Structures are given as C-alpha cells and as structure tokens.
Amino acid sequence: MSNDWLELKNKVVVITGGVGGMGTKFSEEFAKQGAKIVLIDMVEEKTKARAQELAQKYGIETLAVTCNTTNEDEVDAAVKAVIDKFNRIDVLVNTAAILRFSPLEDLRLDEWQAALNVNLTGYFLTSQRFGRVMIQQKYGTMVHISTVASRYPETYSGAYSTTKAAVNMMSKQIAAEWGQYGIRSNCVLPCLVKTPLSKNFYSDAKVEKGRTRLVARRRIGTLDDIANTVLFMASDRSDYTTGDEVTVDGGLNMMISDMIPKPGGRRQYAIDHH
Ligand SMILES: NC(=O)c1ccc[n+]([C@@H]2O[C@H](COP(=O)([O-])OP(=O)(O)OC[C@H]3O[C@@H](n4cnc5c(N)ncnc54)[C@H](O)[C@@H]3O)[C@@H](O)[C@H]2O)c1
Q1: What is the pLDDT of residue 1?
Q2: What's the pLDDT score for residue 259?
Q3: Residue of 152, 156, 160, 181 with catalytic role
Q4: CA dihedral defined by 236, 240, 245, 250, rounded to 10 degrees?
Q5: DSSP state of 195
Q6: In what order do the strands lie in the sheet with 36-41?
Q7: N- or C-end of the chain: fewer Cβ atoms within 10 A?
Q8: Ligand 1, pocket-test mutation among 14, 24, 39, 42, most atoms within 8 A of CB
Q9: Is the dihedral of CA 14, 61, 32, 41 positive or negative?
Q10: If you classify domain 12-196+220-253 with CATH, what class do you get?
Q11: pTM of the model
Q12: For the chain, what percent of residues have pLDDT higher than 90?
C-alpha cells in the first residue's frame, strides 16, 4: 500500500469549527497528508494562529477565515476567500455545532432556535455555497459531523438530537441531488469519544469503567478513531459511498439488548464479565 493511499495531497480541504476539539484534530491529520487547509471558525485570533502553526509545521498552504456559519454574507465571503486563494474546493468537513443542556419542558425558544441555526442551517449554508462551486467543478466531497445522538435522543440536551437527525437527512438529499455532478455527501456519527471537552468525565475512573463496559469494543473512543474515518470518507477511496451514515462508536449502539437486565436475576453479559 502506498504512503499516499488516501491521495489527499494538495486537495483543498475546508473545515468548519476548525479550531474546536474535533476540528483541531481533523486539520492536523489532513495537514499530515499534505492537503491545503482552510479553517473556518468564529474565534479570529485562535483560527489565524492555528492556520499559521499548521503551515509552518507541515510546509503546506493554509487559510484562516473568521466566519459565523449561520450568516449568509459571511459564508459567501468565506467561499470567495477560498476561491481567491486556491481557485477550488475539494472537501468540506462540517463540524461547527453547539450543544446546550436543558430538559424540553424548560427549553427556551431562543435556545431551540440557536441550536437549529448553528447545527442545521449552518451546515446547510456551507454545503449550499461551497456546493455551488463543487457543481461547477463537477467534483467535491462533503463529510458532515453528526452524532449517534441523531438516531437516539440525547436527553436533556434541547434540540441537539433533532438538529443532527435533520443533518443526516440533509446529507442524503445532497447525495441524491448532486451525485450527478460528482459530489458525495456522507455523515460521520461519533459517540463516547474523549475530547478536550469531555475528558473531565473520564477523570473519574468509575465513570470511565462504567462507560467502557457498555461499549462492544470495550474502550472509549479517541479523536484518532474519528479522524481516521473522516479522512477515509473525504478521500476518493470511499468514492462509491454516498448518502451514508458511518457510525464510530465502538459498537455502543449495538448494545441495547445487552443493557437490558435479564429474567431470573441474570445480569447482562457485559456487567457479569467486566
Ligand atoms: N465531542 C464529542 O464527544 C462529540 C460527539 C459526537 C459528535 N460531536 C460533534 O462533533 C462536532 C465538533 O464537536 P467538538 O467537540 O469539536 O466541539 P467544540 O465546541 O470543541 O468545537 C466547535 C467549534 O465550532 C465553532 N463554532 C460554533 N458555532 C459556530 C458558528 N456559528 N460558526 C462558526 N464556527 C462555530 C466553535 O467556535 C468551536 O471552535 C460537533 O458537530 C458535535 O456535534 C462531538
């Protein structure tokens, strides 16, 4: 197998939420492959600094764009900046999203709308505007970061699951409408991953053990697990897969039956054996 099996070298890769926990890892891995990286995020200084750091570390071209993905004009300006610098876009990775905790009965309308705006409308706007360029090029790949919580409700998390379920459907619609233009669209569904945000949960060994035994693979996911899947789905190696949802959860969602206590006091295998 060649060292450049993914053939991502010199591809123009746009990552929204580019300096968040996942975005930072994705950009690092695409940079290692020699891709040209565009970081889109709302936090200006951090985004600029990170783009410079990647350029120096890997000797690649990078671009930092400060942009709120819910703002049509800012997304249009981001597309223009990418085209002005690179004259094309090969890969769009939609990552920018928010999660606000609230039980449904207390959820304020503005909180519901904020989640819909960033998680769904933001993903739509970037897909549509970068997608128009991809249609002209007759080539492009989209990877939308969704979550296993798009299939199962993430309780007390407001509109989060609803927005991500909608993203899954939007991705399928893109796949169906734009496949004829050489564009693919897939979702990646992570769950139980140690990220900068979630690592505090795992500082309690009991919590980590309790979570680990619910996962078929019997380990908590890493950012590498997610990034490896994202890079594969962004590459032409997955060229015949579109409109799909790739789950990266160590088999957690296969364990529902295993979690149900069995009759006669028999406990589930996972708890008995670990
Ligand atoms: N962290 C997890 O365990 C986990 C699990 C499943 C799915 N996900 C998904 O992964 C993605 C990234 O999660 P993360 O852990 O990196 O989150 P994060 O909060 O670390 O990063 C999100 C980034 O998006 C940016 N952002 C937010 N709103 C924006 C907007 N309107 N315009 C531009 N940028 C904006 C933020 O500034 C931040 O840098 C999300 O889509 C999330 O739903 C995360």
Answers
A1: 56
A2: 84
A3: 160
A4: -70
A5: -
A6: 62-66, 36-41, 12-16, 91-94, 140-145, 183-190, 245-248
A7: N
A8: 42
A9: negative
A10: alpha beta
A11: 0.96
A12: 88
Q: How far is the CA of 159 from the centre of ligand 1 (A)?
A: 15
Contact at 8 Å (CB) between 220 and 208? Answer: yes
The length of the chain is 274
**Is there an atom of ligand 1 within 6 Å of 95 CB?**
yes
Q: Is 58 annotated as catalytic?
A: no
| Neighbouring C-alpha atoms within 13 Å toward the C-beta of 184 | 19
Distance CA 104, CA 48 (A): 38
Residue having the nearest C-alpha atom to atom 38 of ligand 1? 20
198 lines ligand 1 (CB under 6 A): yes
Q: Which segments of the chain are extended strands (E)?
A: 12-16, 36-41, 62-66, 91-94, 140-145, 183-190, 245-248
The structural domains of the chain, with segments of one domain joined by +, span: 12-196+220-253
